[in-house]
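Technical appendix A lists one of the benchmark inputs used to test multi-chain prediction within the project. The record comprises two sequence entries:
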Amino acid sequence: MALSWKTRLHIWLRLLLLQASWNFERLQGLGFFYALLPGLKKLYPKEDVLAVSQRHVGYFNTHPYLAPLVAGAVLKLEEERALDSTGEHIEIDEFKEMVAAPYAAIGDALFWGGLRPLVAGISLFFAVKGILWAPVIFILLYNLVPMWFRIGFFVRGYRQGLKSIEFVQKHCLPDWAIHTKEAAVVVLGGLSAFMVFSHLNQQHLPNWLGLLTLFPMILLGLVARKGISTLLLIFLTAISIFLVGLFWADLANWLAL
Amino acid sequence: MISVDLLLGALIATICGLDRVAILQFMLSRPIVAAPLVALVLGEPVVGLQVGLLVELLWLARLPVGAAVPPDDTQVAIASSVMVIVSGRFLNAGGIELILICLLVALPLGKVGQYFEHYARQYNVRLSKQVELALENGSIRAAEWQHLRGLISFSLAAIATYAVILAGGLTLVPLIWPLLQGPLSYSSDWVALAMPLIGIAVILGTINVSRAITLFCASFGMAFLLMWLV
């Protein structure tokens, strides 16, 4: 028996609560069981649901935006198993284990490492201009791609089951992660230039000074790569600027006298 | 009413704190969204936008990968916005200087958020055991409920972080403000410029892209020259 669209919608909505009980022992394990439960209840007779549930409460961890793909595929496999309990079936636990870690790595690089800085960079252009819609622009732009993944990949996972792995391979998501990160670097370069240029104009300082910003930024980037904490960099920079400001003010007063 | 402002802030801190890890992950928790949201509710959205702009990029390079718990920039942004608005009202102060002082107080206090979140995740380990127990006893409904109980841990972690930052900030800012208000006015605009640039520099240093510095310099140079010459 195939799952109705109502049950699938129910499961998809529950996937939004995937990490509600995230813990260091099983990570998303309980959330994955919680999301699948409406489907398992439909697929298996009441006396079997407990045993099947116990299979799904163990360790599980993937990227939250790609979890619907895994959930869709697992539901398909459970459906096949429920329909023909005597036939040869792939171990569903093994499938989960096999796909969870690679999907987590892809998702982390694509969404956290690439898309988030890219969209943050774009929306901060609006924030620098004082446009109050900047947060709305961030939310709308950012969620376009994850929602497409969350909805489309869930549908695809359920439709294709085991073959959903080929679907992911075909779309070369790791390459997209790299392209997104490159785009983020370009946007952040433009944003830095925009902020520095606007600031120099406000301070009535010569524009060429802005090009000098590249040196401290690259230096700070290299220092950050060594593992120095961002908090320390902020305080060191803020204190240095503060002291230079005081010195400059004293010098200006002294020259005026 | 200051108490109403603080409570409204706590409500938004909880919603955004849950969005951060536990539910949805629509990115309501990002400082550029959370800070203007709380400031809008408190009637000063521009303050929130400025706080969001300053905080958004600082820890963006710290990815929530696996069991890693990044610094809680959500609560830093929300508590800083509330702090600026509330302390601004009773100190009769404002401007970028007050925002910077509130932020520089909130940023180190925000480190406690990592401990609270760590504790919440550790506490949730008990829920796994209780789910197993519920299933052994044949109660699926009880097992489902245990999962949802995790939301309580994450909510408490968010509120605790918000409360610590706010309590520390509202104690320290009135003491620091008279001392630093004047001297900071000489450099406040430059510090405000430096904060997002430090965030970008950290992203540049840690993003895993070959030729990141080349791409960044080319983009910076091109954009800067276009604005300068056109």
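Chain A touches chain B through 97 residues (CB under 8 Å). Residues 233 and 252 of chain A are 28 Å apart (CA to CA). Comparable benchmark entries are summarised in Table A2.
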